[in-house]
């Protein structure tokens, strides 16, 4: 019974940690999206860099390599149109995680 209790507790703690990390990634993603909607290239680049750094600093999770690659491309895109195109790739990967 003790083993079952500890296994259940470990699952709950792990789920809560993943939820907190997902919130951070989602908030950074929304900052990028909002900047791109308003057409603010400078803020979009800053927000994309913040998103990239937050993905990079996260622990291992499913599709981290894909999301890291997509956010890196987003943070290096020059024009706002390229950033919007790259956001589509980030969106697709991020929404599968959430």
Main traits of this protein?
mainly alpha, 87% helix, 98 residues
Description of the molecule:
With 98 residues, the chain is mostly helical. Helix content is 87%, strand content 0%. It has four helices and no strands. Helix 1 runs antiparallel to helix 4 and helix 3 packs antiparallel against helix 4.
Topology, please?
Blueprint: H1 2-38, H2 41-57, H3 64-76, H4 80-97
Characterize the overall form: globular
Give the termini distance in whole angstroms.
32 Å
Rounded mean pLDDT is 82
Low-confidence stretches: 4-20
- SSE string: HHHH
How can the largest sheet be summarized?
Answer: none
Helix content: over 70%
How many β-strands, per DSSP? 0
How large, in whole angstroms, is the Cα Rg?
A: 16 Å
Structural class: mainly alpha
Tell me the fraction of residues in β-strands, as a range. Answer: under 5%
Question: Helix count?
Answer: 4
Task: Quickly describe the structure.
The chain has 98 residues and is mainly alpha-helical. It has 4 helices and no strands.
């Amino acid at each position: 019974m003790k083993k079952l209790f500890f296994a259940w507790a470990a699952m709950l703690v792990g789920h809560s940690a993943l939820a907190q990390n997902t919130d951070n990634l989602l908030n950074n993603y929304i900052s990028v999206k909002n900047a791109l909607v308003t057409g603010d290239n400078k803020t979009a680049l800053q927000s994309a860099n913040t998103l990239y750094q937050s993905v990079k600093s996260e622990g291992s999770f499913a599709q981290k390599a894909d999301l890291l690659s997509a956010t890196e491309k987003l943070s290096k895109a020059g024009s706002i149109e390229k950033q919007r195109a790259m956001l589509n790739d980030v969106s697709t990967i991020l929404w599968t995680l959430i």
